[in-house]
Design goal:
single chain, alpha/beta, Nucleotidyltransferase, domain 5, 2 domains, 5-stranded mixed sheet, 45% helix
Length: 195
């Protein structure tokens, strides 16, 4: 497929010189003109092919995608930041703002769940997740109990999502080591990027 005006060159019998020779040479291959279609749709198709091929390159469960998450809550709602790093330098960053009110710990869980869903969608088999929430990492690893019913529901959903991966590990990192995800939370909080 091409955007070049090749249709006229292949179908016009009075082409001169070099183009005539090419038309004769190409005529034995039974080439037919087919319009390319909208460029916008082609860009999306190329993007999906690129991402799916990157997802299929991982071999075995030793490879881990890396996920960094952070969440925050205020009186206007809650914000999360998700950074997913995959094979071949693949990097996906999301800054999301939710209109509903939630506690900071619920926002941290929402960030973890959003990141896990994204990794699952990308076809990750092994996932190393990083969060600066000691409570969330402690509950997921079993060091702490989730006594609050809402926190228990978030924890239960994370446990279900863990089954989507061959290898899953959630580690606690200091806030300084989670600064990129924190910046995304601040971006969502500021309202920048909304169109």
């Amino acid at each position: 497929m091409t955007d070049l005006p090749i249709r006229k060159a292949l179908q016009k019998p009075d082409v001169a010189g070099r183009m005539a020779r090419w038309a004769v040479e190409l005529s034995e291959f039974d080439i037919h003109y087919k319009p390319r279609g909208p460029i916008k749709g082609q860009i999306y198709a190329d993007f999906v092919v690129e991402l799916s091929s990157a997802a299929t390159h991982q071999e075995g469960s030793d490879f881990k995608w890396e996920l960094s998450v952070d969440g925050s809550s205020n009186q206007q709602g809650s914000e999360i930041g998700v950074i997913l790093e995959g094979p071949d330098g693949l990097l996906i960053e999301q800054a999301l703002r939710f209109a509903f009110k939630a506690s900071n710990n619920q926002a941290e869980y929402a960030a973890l769940i959003a990141g896990m869903l994204l990794a699952k969608e990308m076809g990750a088999k092994g996932l190393l997740a990083k969060s600066d929430s000691l409570l969330v990492t402690g509950q997921v690893t079993g060091e702490y109990q989730a006594k609050d019913p809402q926190m228990a529901a978030y924890l239960e959903y994370v446990q279900v999502l863990k089954e989507s991966f061959e290898v899953f590990e959630l580690v606690h990192v200091p806030r300084e080591q989670n600064s990129r995800a924190d910046l995304l939370v601040k971006l969502a909080s500021s309202g920048k990027g909304r169109g």
